[in-house]
Amino acid sequence: MSTYKVKRRDFLKITGLSGASAALAACDMPTTITLEEGEEDVVSYLMPEEYVIPGIGVWYASTCRQCDAACGIIGRVREGRVLKLEGNPQSPINQGALCQIGQAALQVHYNPDRLKQPKIRQGGRLIDASWDEAFDVLKSHIGPDSGIDGSRIAWLSGTVSGHQRVLMDAVSEALGGAGHYAHEILNDTVVDKVNAEVYGSTNIQYKIAEAQVVLSIGADFLSTWGSPVHNSVQYGKFRDAPRGVLIQAEPRMTVTGGSADLWLPVRPGAEGALAMTIAAELVASHGADAKTLPQAVADQLGQYDLASAEEQTGVAADLIEKAADFLATRGPSLVIAGGTAAAHEHGYEAVTAAAMLNVLLGNVGKTIIPVADFPYSALAPKKGDTAQLAAFAKKARAGDISVALITGTNPVYTAPEQLDMVGALNAVKVKIAFAEFIDETSAMADVILPLCSDLESWGTHVASYQTTDAIISLQQPLMEPLYAQTRSLGDVLLAIMKLHNAEQYGPFADYYGYLRNVIAAVPAVAKEGLGDEAYWQAGLQKGMLTVAASAIVSAPLVEAADDAAGNEEAKEMVDNVASEDSFTFALPVYEKDKDFPLRLVPSASSRLGDGRFANLPWLQEAPDAITKIVWNSWVEMHPATALHYGIKQGDIVRVSGEDGSVEAQVYLHKGINKDAIAVPMGQGHTEYGRYASGRGVNPLKMVAVETDSHSGEIALCATRVTVENTGRNEELVKMGGSESQVGRKLVGTITADQLRRV
Prior knowledge:
4 domains, globular, alpha/beta, 6-stranded mixed beta sheet, N-terminal domain of TfIIb, Dimethylsulfoxide Reductase, domain 2
């Protein structure tokens, strides 16, 4: 085993463990794990290793990378092939459960459309190349001798964390200050902003299992929002005796809405008014103390009451009254807001109103727990959003980006047409993509370096939603790479760093060796007395490393509210959280636009996500949880709305807005607000392989670029549209038959109170 000497401060920076917590680290430098140290003799399975029994699977722990929840997984490997994935019971995130998207990671790995070798653009088209040829092209543009101004280089990525982010930031620094723009069309930027202002931290633990009533406004927390598998495990405990009550308010019924005891079909954009009406009812009828609220909020409660509720929100007054009664009489409660509630022009106000409900109900510190930021900021997630993408597009169109380094995102598909991402990328001289597939964005690249699948790669990750103590999730390869010309993202980033800083990064033989050194540098206090090797092996067995206990932080608004009655300074602090200068809850009464009377809800799919899973046939043929439709797009519409337009089930309609139109079959469903229509995300690809290309429609392209004024986020549910019948009708392809019991009472129901008495 070889060693290399480097200053301690530089080493901690290289490994991403610098900062206050790094003061606990040992001063001795760990040794470097060399490639030679891991050499093995490859033998036929006629002469297997003694721990390999032909026909018997061996399970290895790793981390699911299908989304940013970082669920723990265990993979069954037999004869050198990974065959099955399950949830890791030791993971505090998913506790042994795994969603269908996580199960489908196998189809990413074995997908016939995976890139098998690099491609470079010649004569206007992409041709096959060797890895060395493609990397030489990359080196000519971002190598130390390229001569390019680093400020004209930019990363365009999805959400990234762990040591992939550390190396990405190191590359940016080595290039002389390259920018980094992270893009996710589905994000929690608005929620994070509100959480920081109201609760004192962007990192909030939602204790669903410890609540007796949960009011979720727009957040499909069982399917597409937050950490869905963790939330589902919590929800199972929440439903145990004494059975909790779930209230879901949203414009279009989701998986969470379908599970609710009380479903409130709120009009898109009116979620803030709904939350304020519930708050006003709690104060007027249940004795809640409005003094705990900022004065700017308390003063406006009088503008909301049950008499005007339906006109403002689209929800019947008796349903709002029932929701307030549940919250007032069963405690502790929990109010969650996000998803569609944050995805419109009043998203900030809606999420803040929901947070005010938590303050009014005394939930903070009980079911709402603000925790400290991840102790190693260099490893924390760089979260994607739409504001960063808009900034990248603006800079690219201005000619200020010469080289774009693209990985983990597909903005040509996800960005609204108004952003003109094709034009923005065409204005970039050189585009280098690191990808597993050719999608709409990588198809525009000048160089594509093919990546290993997540089941072939080493990595560390930090979940966007930390559920317990701060942990680093470990990703280890479950088998050797299928294709010799692919590399892991970590190895590619390390290779780029070796071009610029061979002295410090050269001794790392590969990304595996780099990670071994990183783990050795974790503070000794976190290792619980284990040596470096034992700590590493324990981490591999569990699939994670605990690095610090999560510190609970104070919520300034709540602490100040406790003393507000007799303390002017504290009262001022409360008022500053929600001053009239920053926002107002006095939302306008709903009025229909005569040309575009409906609101478009581009609904997140529990199968295809934002479109990144559309190339997986398992998920294409998995029935939608609500409609049971497969392999296609559809337009969800309330029967009363359809009757108004003379539309029936299966009619092909044209949904038109100011920025485009789509055509799809109608699915009539009472689980949607009458003033809204929904088109699911995920379909409508023009690239992305045989299973995705040319199928269905993409509603994201017609989204109007209207932004939330507080965060700059594109308001996905602010687009106004109209519908017209094309005169064509086709049978919907869906699983299942009638949605009615036709009076036969095939399924009996009892109330929750009756269940508790059983």
